[in-house]
Amino acid sequence: MAIPPTAPVLMTRNLLYTGITRAKKLLIIVGYEKVVEFMIDNVDSKKRNTGLEYKLKSEF
């Protein structure tokens, strides 16, 4: 799993957890230790406005 330094809004614990739990047999994290530590400590999650709910409701 590549974890590059990026915008803090993308460096969340949820995203790290998703990457870790999708690994089937082996996980190798490539990135800076400080970035991974930041993600572990960053419990801030923003509401995502994807419009998916609206799109699904308008299709049916």
Describe the structure in brief:
The chain is mostly helical and about 60 residues long. It has 3 helices and 2 strands, in the order βαβαα.
Observed structural traits:
2 strands, 60 residues, two-stranded parallel ribbon, mainly alpha, single chain
Please, could you describe this protein's structure?
With 60 residues, this protein is mainly α. The chain has one domain (2-59). 43% of the residues lie in helices and 7% in strands. The chain has 3 helices and 2 strands, in the order βαβαα. The chain has a two-stranded parallel ribbon with strand order 1-2. α1 packs across α2. The chain is extended and about 45 Å long.
> What's the main sheet like?
2 strands, parallel
H/E element sequence: EHEHH
Per the principal axes of the C-alpha atoms, what is the gross shape?
extended
Order of strands, main sheet, comes to 1-2
Number of beta strands: 2
Q: Rg to the nearest angstrom?
A: 15 Å
Counted up, domains total: 1
Overall pLDDT confidence? 87
Distance between the termini: 37 Å
Structural class: mainly alpha
Low-pLDDT parts are none
Percentage of residues assigned to helices: 40-55%
